[in-house]
Amino acid sequence: MSHAALATLEQKLDELIRVCEQLTEENRRLREEQHSLKAERNALLDKTAQARNRIEGMIERLKLLEHEV
């Protein structure tokens, strides 16, 4: 294999390694973002459930007041 062909192959391998490293980093970042978004979603679901429970409690109290009148 000629020196030029080896140099070309080396450049292609270097580029492939660089792309692989970029993809690995992007994958790591996306996994972190996914974990963060899942945690945020769970927190929002909890807040929604708490709000629903409070509203349902208020409705029940209003119904009791309505029957007392």
Can you summarize this structure?
With 69 residues, the chain is mainly alpha-helical. The protein has one helix spanning 3-68.
Helix proportion: over 70%
Radius of gyration: 30 Å
What fraction of the residues are assigned to beta strands by DSSP? Answer: under 5%
Largest sheet: none
Please count the helical segments: 1
Number of strands: 0
Instruction: Return the string of H and E elements.
Output: H
Summarize the structure in words.
The chain is an all-alpha fold. The chain is 96% helix and 0% strand. The longest helix has 66 residues.
Secondary structure topology:
Elements: H1 3-68
Which features does this protein show?
single chain, 69 residues, mainly alpha
